[in-house]
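User: ok so my PI wants both of these folded by tonight, can you help

Assistant: No problem, let's get them done. Here's the first:
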Amino acid sequence: MKKPSLLIYIHGFNSSPLSHKAQVMVQYCAEYRPDIKVIVPKLPSYPQAAADYLVELIEEYRKDYEIGLVGSSLGGYLSTWLNAKYAFNAVLVNPAIKPYELLADYLGTQVNPYTQEEYFLEEKHMVELLALQVNEIVLPNCLWLLQQEGDEVLDYRQAVAKYINCKQTVEKEGDHSFVNFERYPQQIIQFLNL
């Protein structure tokens, strides 16, 4: 008998479960696929703590559920790491490729615009991010890159190159939020095989 399905949506840096794309997935499943359990964890602000939290969550559910991942930005980076660890299918939306370089410009006090949580980003957190780097994609068939070239935060070419052997949908223009994400929930669910 097929296990019940669980979709875990992994939000990005300074985001939250209230992010637009997370809510699109939650609402789509509630309306069209109520059989899918959707979890959008509020991730700790620090990389290793976030990774540990996700592993704990997955260990709690993986015996009883088929798990699929959707990760946006830094969540895409973490989803790639989880794919390498567990072989789950994952959809990566404008994923961060080298967040330890990008976020080096953000060291110091940060305030999450969704939660108003204040925290302090240090060099050691960049080291934690680097430790989660997946150098080689071993399961390209399990990953789908959803990328918009107009991403103003990340260089889309890095993602296109990293996920070269994976399924890719690369759209002209758009931005880091992934404009009109509402077009994709059904295809995402199909790809995740949930």
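One down. Here's the second:
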Amino acid sequence: MIPINQRLQKVSEYIQGQVLADIGSDHAFLPMYCLECGMIQQAIAGEVIVGPYNSAVKSVERHGYQHKVEIRLGDGLTILNPDKDIVDTVTICGMGGPLIARILTEGMAHIPNRPRLVLQSNIQSEPIRHFLQSNGYQIITETLIKERAHIYEIIVADPGVMSLSAKDFKFGPFLHVTPSDLFYEKWTRELEALEDIKRNLDPIKHQVRFDEIARQEKEIKEVLEPCN
């Protein structure tokens, strides 16, 4: 069996179609796992740094998938040829939300067929949701998963139209409507972190920052209230 963590295993549940493009592939474990389980037929795995690229090449060869997974060196979605590479799902995992949004912004011209996007952010998912709404994508589901004490968000989007509220952008249109225990834990942690920061601020000397944190605390407390 291909060694894969619980987080990527959850991501794999949302992959559809025959061809996967995995950006920032990290040893290409996700594409190989999907091939092993018969979820896909082919994959393209991208790495932007030579070291991880070489590791992915060796990993694919070691597991005998070099004819099914093509490892490419390049920045984000620019590894894809829009005229030749027709992918069904794009996965971008293990990065911050702002970086994922940047990769999508800079690379959309390389996926003109508009494949499904499965995006797993480590922090700050709000920029991802803004990008999706502005670029003709609709979030079809979201989920949270906890691994090694960290809580990750997974956002799944297909082409479509949506109109999110400010609360939807920040907390997730699916996640805050039916809040889970993980949702409560994630945002309680965020609230505690903000309170720690605020305690070290002078409310007069750092008034702008102090007021901004107080506003964020209010938003979080409002969304957590139904969870109690």
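The chain has a mean pLDDT of 94. The first strand starts at residue 19 and ends at 23. Good luck tonight!
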